[in-house]
């Protein structure tokens, strides 16, 4: 029971971080129709910027400034890069952001080197939040969950209730009409792209010290957020929410479980000799298979329901 | 006999001649090794362009098919050890079949969708397979990979593939065959329909061709040629590891192909040469070669979507000379690029001192 609850909480916090990441990606996709390949790179930049700022000013200013900086960069990328590529179609957009991710990793290594950064959790949030049975749940994980939920509630309130949200929704469905009414639609696009990148940056600020800040962090999480977005259904925020929690919880459980098919069979009284066909497959523990779970899930969803869990269109 | 038809008739013999003469001009061992790498990469880039350029499928997993085929080839070579050296001639074919089988299995999932979703599925499959390979160290050799020896046995009419020159000619032979086959494919109805599916899947469907089926067929054929390229890579390096089917390797194939130009049949070959020169020559001068490669790629996506081949084509079409204005613009661009390179190099030096 203790194990189940703690793992569930850890899985939830990881899932919420994934959602913080993939929400920006989904937002950009539903708005601009481009899947930003460099999204995880902005997450990485968020972590590195936060580290650089927190050395000078402390963690709390970094929490505010780093996402803003990343958002500004995102705006520049959209204004001077993506906007010019758009006329060449979707593949060109994907290629451009892909090249960008390649360049950003190299630039990060150029500026900060290849080793991991000592980006630490702030002292105020370092410690146990509460104790379940005998296991302490870290305060910082709770803070991450709270921050993710608050951000997402704010974002959804902005989209649903505010004037700018109204404009964004209109730009999605009736861009020409909006132009005719005198709004600058390209600027709205830039704003949305910047906001999506800022969300990724924010995820980087809290994810960077919760996990690790190093040049490989973008590649590590990049493919997973694409899985989240495709499994949830391209452009569906609710789908991304379900998918990220699902993947977060699945992976956290899998990593913590040290059972294999072999031990399962042994429990039923079936002994398999090492010479048997498929023995290497049976011997694999869940923890060893954990890294491929998200991708297996994606393949399964693609075979059974190609548009994703809550996707409305193929 | 017009000039253009004469030119198109002389292309293939010319290509064969270049392949034969190249190692005689660049006879040093380092140059031979680079030429061999270029040959393998050309096959990979050409086969990748069957997906991206000809069928509009942006796959992020091309290295998977080459890599799996390379593993199969290595195991086949190890089981053939002690036999005839001539068997090596057919190892690439085995690799091709292995690549095709992998393409049939994974392509089924990948090609169910088109556009962005297809790219994402291919990305997930790369990650899946790259992680999966490490789980079975028995067959894939874990982190260190699987070694082999390309000298299978007694020389066959004096050829045992011990020297790099003989390996180069093996690669060149297969490169010529593959390039000719892939070019022929573009002229077949399937190749034409693949273009139609790329440009307008709906219309292709209306004239009775299921886009999904066309994509799947092209995917399998592309995986076949990728498999040949992978097998040749295995023969060339005599080692295959999980790195061979990583996302990074797929990304490199994509970068090289696009830099060369996806709109022309020979574009990917230029890209392969540029890419191999970048990664083998430039990397000895600077640690920043990957950054330059990335920047070059981004610049090409932004300003010259036709790649190097596209720029070349545009220059060739120009009847009149190059004007003063464009010369000044070119000089300005070169100056900017020089300044950028200088700054980046200074930063790398600074990073090295720390």
UniProtKB/TrEMBL annotation, chain A:
Keywords noted in UniProt: Amino-acid transport, Cell membrane, Membrane, Transmembrane, Transmembrane helix, Transport
Top-level taxon: Bacteria
GO biological process, one term: amino acid transport
Keyword Nucleus tagged: no
TM helices/strands, residue ranges: 12-35, 65-82, 94-112, 139-159, 188-212, 224-246, 253-270, 282-304
GO molecular function: transmembrane transporter activity
Main location: membrane
Cellular component GO terms held in the UniProt record: plasma membrane
Signal peptide (UniProt feature, chain positions): none
Record keyword Membrane present: yes
Membrane topology field: Multi-pass membrane protein
Location of the protein in the cell: Cell membrane
InterPro entries xrefs: ABC_transp_permease (IPR001851), BCAA_transport_permease (IPR052157)
Recorded family membership: Belongs to the binding-protein-dependent transport system permease family. LivHM subfamily.
Protein name: High-affinity branched-chain amino acid transport system permease protein LivH
From TrEMBL, chain B:
Localization per record: Cell membrane
Domain of life: Bacteria
GO molecular function annotations of the record: branched-chain amino acid transmembrane transporter activity
InterPro entries: ABC_transp_permease, LivM-like
Transmembrane segments: 12-28, 87-109, 121-140, 167-185, 216-235, 255-279, 291-315, 327-348
A cellular component annotation (GO) from this entry: plasma membrane
Keyword set includes Iron-sulfur: no
Membrane topology: Multi-pass membrane protein
Keywords, in A-Z order: Cell membrane, Membrane, Transmembrane, Transmembrane helix
Protein name as it appears in the record: Branched-chain amino acid transport system permease protein LivM
Classification lineage: Bacteria, Pseudomonadati, Pseudomonadota, Betaproteobacteria, Burkholderiales
């Amino acid at each position: 029971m203790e194990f189940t609850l703690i793992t569930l909480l850890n899985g939830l916090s990881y899932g919420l971080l994934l959602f913080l990441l993939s929400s920006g990606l989904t937002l950009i996709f539903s708005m601009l129709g481009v899947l930003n390949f460099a999204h995880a790179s902005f997450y990485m930049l968020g972590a590195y910027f936060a580290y650089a700022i927190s050395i000078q000013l402390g963690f709390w200013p970094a929490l505010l400034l780093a996402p803003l900086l990343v958002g500004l960069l995102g705006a520049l990328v959209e204004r001077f890069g993506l906007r010019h590529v758009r006329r060449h179609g979707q593949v060109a957009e994907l290629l451009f952001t892909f090249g960008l991710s390649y360049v950003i990793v190299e630039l990060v290594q150029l500026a900060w080197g290849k080793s991991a950064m000592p980006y630490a959790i702030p002292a105020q949030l370092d410690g146990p939040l509460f104790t379940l049975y005998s296991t302490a749940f870290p305060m910082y994980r709770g803070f991450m969950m709270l921050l993710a939920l608050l951000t997402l509630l704010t974002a959804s309130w902005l989209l649903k209730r505010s004037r700018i949200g109204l404009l964004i929704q209109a730009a999605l469905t009736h861009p020409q009409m909006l132009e005719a009414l005198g709004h600058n639609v390209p600027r709205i696009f830039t704003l949305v792209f910047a906001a999506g990148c800022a969300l990724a940056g924010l995820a980087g600020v809290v994810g960077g010290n919760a996990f690790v800040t190093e040049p490989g962090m973008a590649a590590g999480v990049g493919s997973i957020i694409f899985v989240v977005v495709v499994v949830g259904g391209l452009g569906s925020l609710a789908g991304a929410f379900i998918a990220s929690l699902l993947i977060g919880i699945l992976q956290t459980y899998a990593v913590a479980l040290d059972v294999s098919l072999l031990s399962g069979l042994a429990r039923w009284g079936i002994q398999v000799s090492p010479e048997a066909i498929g023995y290497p497959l049976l011997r694999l523990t869940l923890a060893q298979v954990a890294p491929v779970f998200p991708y297996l899930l994606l393949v399964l969803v693609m075979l059974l329901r190609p548009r994703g869990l809550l996707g409305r269109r193929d | 006999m017009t000039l253009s038809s004469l030119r198109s008739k002389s292309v293939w013999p010319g290509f064969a001649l270049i392949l034969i003469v190249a190692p005689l001009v660049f006879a040093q061992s380092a140059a031979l090794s680079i030429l061999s790498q270029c040959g393998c990469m050309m096959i990979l880039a050409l086969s990748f362009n069957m997906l991206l350029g000809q069928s509009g499928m942006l796959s992020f997993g091309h290295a998977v098919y080459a890599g799996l085929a390379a593993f199969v080839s290595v195991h086949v070579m190890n089981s053939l050890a002690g036999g005839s050296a001539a068997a090596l001639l057919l190892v690439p074919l085995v690799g091709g079949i292995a690549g095709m089988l992998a393409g049939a299995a994974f392509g089924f999932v990948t090609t169910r969708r088109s556009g962005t979703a297809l790219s994402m599925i291919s990305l997930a499959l790369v990650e899946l397979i790259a992680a999966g390979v490490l789980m079975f160290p028995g067959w894939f050799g874990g982190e260190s990979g699987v070694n082999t020896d390309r000298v299978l046995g007694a020389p066959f009419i004096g050829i045992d593939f011990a020297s790099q020159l003989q390996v180069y000619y093996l690669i060149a032979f297969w490169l010529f065959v593959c390039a000719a086959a892939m070019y022929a494919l573009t002229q077949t109805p399937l190749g034409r329909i693949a273009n139609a599916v790329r440009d307008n899947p709906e219309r292709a469907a209306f004239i009775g061709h299921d886009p999904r089926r066309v994509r799947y067929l092209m995917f399998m054929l592309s995986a076949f040629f990728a498999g040949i390229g992978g097998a040749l890579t295995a023969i060339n390096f005599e080692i295959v590891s999980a790195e061979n089917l990583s996302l990074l390797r797929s990304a490199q194939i994509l970068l090289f192909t696009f830099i060369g130009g996806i709109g022309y049949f020979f574009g990917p070959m230029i890209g392969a040469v540029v890419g191999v020169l970048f990664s083998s020559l430039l990397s000895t001068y600077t640690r920043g070669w990957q950054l330059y490669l990335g920047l070059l790629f981004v610049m090409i996506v932004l300003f010259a979507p036709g790649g190097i081949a596209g720029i070349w084509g545009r220059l060739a079409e120009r009847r009149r000379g190059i004007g003063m204005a464009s010369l000044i613009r070119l000089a300005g661009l070169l100056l900017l690029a020089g300044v950028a390179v200088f700054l980046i190099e200074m930063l790398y030096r600074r990073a090295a001192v720390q």
